[in-house]
């Protein structure tokens, strides 16, 4: 159903801007025509981001950016005390006098906590933690930060893995590598990903979640996870917004370059995995302006060869009779990541900035999967044998994903006003050319088939099962898919700051217009009846020339991919197109968003408050295909929807003392349904006289959530923090897959699968975080850095289904939500040596709902504990050697159906080793 917005967004934005201008013109204290600026460094001129710079008498503060810079554009004339706070550094104070002329303080150099002449630690493990904690401490809302230095302390190869160390954050893995990010137990599709403020497009067909394994961690300056949304941030997340920030030449006080070369090895695959990366920044003089133009370039190229051994049932259990089907899988994988970033900044003065940010990342996944599938005639228990069929199957494809982004903008301060104009664009695609979706060879057995074991299942079969001669070709399915998503946006923001008797106020308003377009197309070929087509080669022995190297058990002959391609290329493809499968998954969606917001910030002696609201209006036009199997007809379908949402927020921070503070907030957020859920596609088929249908639902409502946060933070005088954050989310319009067969309009259907909105879901939890720099022992213990975080969550949601014509409900936890997520890291560091051992843990969680009316078939991912080790040796000032081990404890992935013994999927990846050299200057 379409609903008109209460206010048109363009009228709303004009009203916001007018109101701000009127307020700014009539309120506030007169300013002197003077600016105060400077830069925070250590005594070796290394920049300190995240430092809080305060003019004590005015309760006016700034937080330094990655370049360590701060600017107060216009201040009342007078004498003031400037204070600088930075985690791990002593409090710095300096007297300043504001008159008619701008005051440039230059570099303010901080000292260590003990006020010695030693410089503040900004490199290595301690320095990385100091940067992150300083930015978190001074943020208006609840923010968790991983800086580039901190990411370098762990053996993380992509942006997703870099985030898994943060409190409240966990990752979903693909073949052992981190891919998607979960925040506070909410699935990846419930979180937004932005690059320097512009939303990143998602490469996968039906999803909004951005696969962050596409982006190498070498290209990033920092990654921030905002768990509370301020009104100036775009909607699109329930758990959090993941902001990827790229490097800038101004992030360093001098020209810089770094080159890294690495070779890796995986214990399951006898192959080497090379990687090279480089970063270079340069500052240039423009006219009379010294160091006013900065150019930064980063590149990364890595090729990783690895594999996995797998055993899975796919949930083919018939409780309590036993198992009906299972398979063994051997994966051989080669992944290549190419990442490029080129950024330019021009700063003619301290109040004006122009910038260009670019990103290109390409991820190529070449995967070959040999499978041995056992289809039993009836369900059997472990150790029992009977008759059935074995299928040897090959899947082979090269899939390429890419993500690119471009951001252009300017930020300028004019008196008490600051304004920003920005345009952004992002594109993502996923391309899988003509490839083998499944080449199957079968052999039937009258007896002797069964299984044994639990997690990693073992096949029980006669010796003939492992010989190629007994298998004949059954079917070859080929596929070709392409998905493309584009997002374009433009935004304008204006703020006005003024000093009142009770503190410092800032009013801010802005508008943003964005357009997102997603298209997906797929072609499927089903080659079969080969003898009728004149094919003479029907035995597997004619398509196999090697054996599968499968460590857990005996496997047998491998299917040769080149032979399969040769077979299908000898036939006329047009004769084998599957018309239905080639049409039903094609869709196009066009979303246009218009947003406006108004927010106010007030900072007093102890309080920091943010209040405001955002309005977003969405217009969506989508198209798909309807297939009617009864009439054998294809029909184009279209759906148009329009909807608007108000998103208020109130965020507060109260300073108990110099080291402790309390945070509290309320906000409302939303997430739009996935494209696959919204697509107006409809598939109607008849099976043995029964009607079966599956279709999308363009009328789905967006998920919305009312969020409450309350927390306490205590920062040590040295390097350390203790914090506890309690959160609660009341989620409306929870989306799940439902079967409407038997309900009104579907009375004669055996199956009518679609998506529908549930009533409510709830999520609550607590995040605990601790960091401690050991000191005071006078020995090697003073080189230890300890960090740990624990997130405890719980959730509940309801699913609806029909039972004997009556609508029933059952309760579940939210999919992808672990009750416990934890990280522990122990670091040891001297001037030359750095060692770090990290443990990452998440408890079992609901991976997918099996059958709506029977919880016994729900699929759960088992708990997962992974150990990673990293070490570095500083050979000289510019040369560093490192050695890393990923998955030190060889932790597998295991999922089960209902009960722990009932395998759904078991996969082991082995350990990965990396030896590298870094040269920097």
TrEMBL record:
It comes from the Bacteria. Belongs to the TonB-dependent receptor family. Residues 442-888 form the TonB-dependent receptor-like beta-barrel domain. It is found in: Cell outer membrane. Keywords: Cell outer membrane, Membrane, Receptor, Signal, TonB box, Transmembrane, Transmembrane beta strand, Transport. This is TonB-dependent receptor. It is a multi-pass membrane protein. Its main location: membrane. The lineage of its organism: Bacteria, Pseudomonadati, Pseudomonadota, Gammaproteobacteria, Chromatiales. NCBIfam families: TonB-Xanth-Caul. Residues 1-32 form the signal peptide. Residues 136-241 form the TonB-dependent receptor plug domain. The keyword Transport applies. The keyword Transcription regulation does not apply. InterPro entries: Beta-barrel_TonB, Beta-barrel_TonB_sf, CarboxyPept-like_regulatory, Plug_dom, Plug_dom_sf, TonB-dep_rcpt-like, TonB_rcpt_bac.
């Amino acid at each position: 159903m379409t609903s008109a917005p209460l206010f048109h967004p363009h009228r709303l934005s004009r009203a916001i801007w007018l109101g701000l201008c009127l307020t700014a013109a009539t309120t506030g204290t007169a300013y002197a025509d003077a600016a105060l600026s400077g830069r925070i460094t250590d005594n070796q001129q290394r920049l300190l981001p995240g430092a809080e710079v305060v003019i004590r008498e005015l309760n006016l503060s700034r937080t330094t950016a990655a370049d360590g810079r701060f600017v107060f554009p216009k201040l009342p004339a007078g004498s003031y005390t400037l204070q600088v706070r930075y985690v791990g550094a002593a409090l710095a104070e300096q007297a300043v006098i504001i008159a008619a002329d701008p005051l440039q303080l230059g570099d303010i150099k901080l000292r260590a906590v003990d006020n010695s002449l030693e410089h503040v630690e900004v490199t290595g493990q301690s320095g990385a933690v100091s940067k992150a904690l300083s930015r978190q401490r001074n943020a208006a809302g609840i923010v968790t930060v991983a800086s580039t230095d901190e990411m370098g302390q762990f053996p993380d190869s992509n942006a997703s893995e870099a985030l898994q160390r943060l409190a409240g954050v966990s990752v979903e893995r693909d073949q052992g590598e981190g891919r998607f990010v979960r925040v506070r137990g909410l699935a990846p599709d419930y979180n937004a990903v932005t690059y320097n403020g512009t939303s990143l497009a998602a490469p996968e067909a039906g999803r909004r979640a951005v696969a962050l394994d596409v982006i190498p961690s070498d290209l990033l300056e920092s990654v921030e996870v905002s768990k509370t949304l301020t009104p100036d941030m775009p909607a699109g997340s329930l758990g959090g917004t993941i902001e990827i920030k790229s490097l800038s030449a101004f992030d360093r006080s001098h020209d810089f370059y770094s080159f890294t070369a690495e070779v890796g090895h995986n214990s399951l695959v006898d192959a080497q995995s090379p990687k090279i990366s480089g970063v270079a920044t340069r500052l240039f003089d423009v006219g009379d302006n010294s160091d006013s133009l900065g150019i930064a370039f980063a590149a990364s190229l890595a090729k990783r060869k690895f594999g996995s051994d797998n055993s899975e049932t796919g949930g083919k259990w018939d409780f309590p009779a036993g198992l009906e089907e299972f398979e063994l899988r051997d994966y051989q994988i080669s992944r290549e990541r190419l990442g490029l970033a080129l950024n330019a900044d021009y700063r003619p003065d301290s109040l004006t900035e122009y910038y260009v940010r670019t990103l290109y990342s390409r991820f190529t996944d070449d995967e070959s999967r040999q499978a041995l599938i056992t289809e039993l005639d009836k369900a059997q228990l472990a150790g029992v044998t009977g008759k059935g069929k074995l299928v040897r199957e090959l899947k082979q494809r090269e899939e390429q994903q890419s993500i690119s982004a471009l951001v252009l903008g300017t930020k300028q301060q004019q008196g008490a006003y600051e304004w920003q104009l920005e345009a952004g664009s992002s594109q993502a695609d996923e391309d899988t050319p003509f490839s083998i979706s499944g080449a199957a060879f079968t052999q039937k057995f009258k007896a002797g088939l069964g299984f044994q074991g639990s997690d990693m299942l073992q096949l029980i079969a006669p010796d003939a099962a492992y010989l190629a001669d007994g298998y004949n070709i059954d079917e070859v399915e080929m596929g070709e898919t392409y998905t493309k998503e584009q997002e374009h946006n433009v935004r304008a923001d204006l703020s006005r700051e003024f000093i009142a008797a009770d503190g410092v106020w800032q009013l801010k308003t802005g508008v943003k217009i964005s357009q997102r377009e997603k298209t997906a197309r797929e072609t499927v070929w089903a080659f079969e009846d080969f003898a009728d087509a004149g094919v003479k080669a029907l035995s597997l022995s004619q398509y196999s020339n090697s054996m599968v190297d499968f460590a857990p058990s005996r496997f047998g002959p491998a299917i040769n991919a080149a032979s399969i391609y040769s077979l299908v290329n000898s036939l006329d493809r047009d004769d084998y197109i599957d018309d239905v499968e080639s049409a039903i998954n094609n869709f196009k969606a066009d979303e246009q968003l218009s947003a406006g917001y108004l927010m106010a910030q007030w900072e007093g002696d102890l309080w920091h408050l943010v209040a405001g609201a955002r309005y977003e209006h969405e217009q969506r036009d989508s198209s798909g295909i309807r297939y009617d199997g009864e009439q054998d007809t294809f029909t184009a379908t279209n759906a148009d929807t329009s909807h608007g949402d108000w998103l208020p927020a109130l965020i507060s921070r109260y300073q108990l003392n110099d080291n402790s503070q309390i945070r509290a907030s309320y906000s409302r957020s939303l997430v739009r349904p996935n494209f696959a859920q919204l697509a107006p596609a409809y598939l109607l088929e008849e099976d043995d006289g029964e009607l079966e249908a599956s279709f999308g639902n363009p009328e789905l409502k967006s998920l919305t959530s009312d969020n409450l946060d309350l927390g306490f933070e205590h920062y040590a005088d040295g390097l350390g923090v203790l914090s506890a954050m309690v959160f609660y989310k009341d989620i409306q319009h929870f989306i799940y897959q439902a079967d409407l067969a038997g309900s009104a309009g579907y009375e004669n259907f055996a199956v009518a699968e679609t998506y529908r909105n549930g009533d409510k879901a709830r999520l609550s939890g607590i995040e605990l975080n601790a960091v401690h720099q050991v000191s005071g022992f006078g020995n090697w213990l003073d080189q230890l850095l300890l960090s740990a975080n624990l997130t405890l969550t719980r959730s509940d949601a309801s699913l609806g289904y029909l039972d004997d014509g009556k609508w029933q409900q059952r309760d579940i936890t939210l999919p992808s939500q672990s009750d416990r997520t934890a990280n522990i890291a122990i670091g040891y560091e001297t001037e030359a040596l750095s060692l770090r051992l990290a443990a990452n843990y998440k408890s079992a969680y609901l991976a997918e709902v099996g059958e709506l009316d029977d919880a016994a078939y729900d699929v759960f991912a088992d708990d997962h504990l992974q150990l990673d080790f990293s070490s570095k040796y500083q050979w000289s000032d510019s040369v560093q050697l490192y050695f890393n081990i990923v998955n030190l404890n060889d932790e597998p992935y295991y999922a089960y159906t209902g009960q722990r013994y009932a395998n759904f999927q078991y996969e082991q990846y082995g350990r990965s080793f990396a030896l590298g050299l870094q040269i920097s200057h």
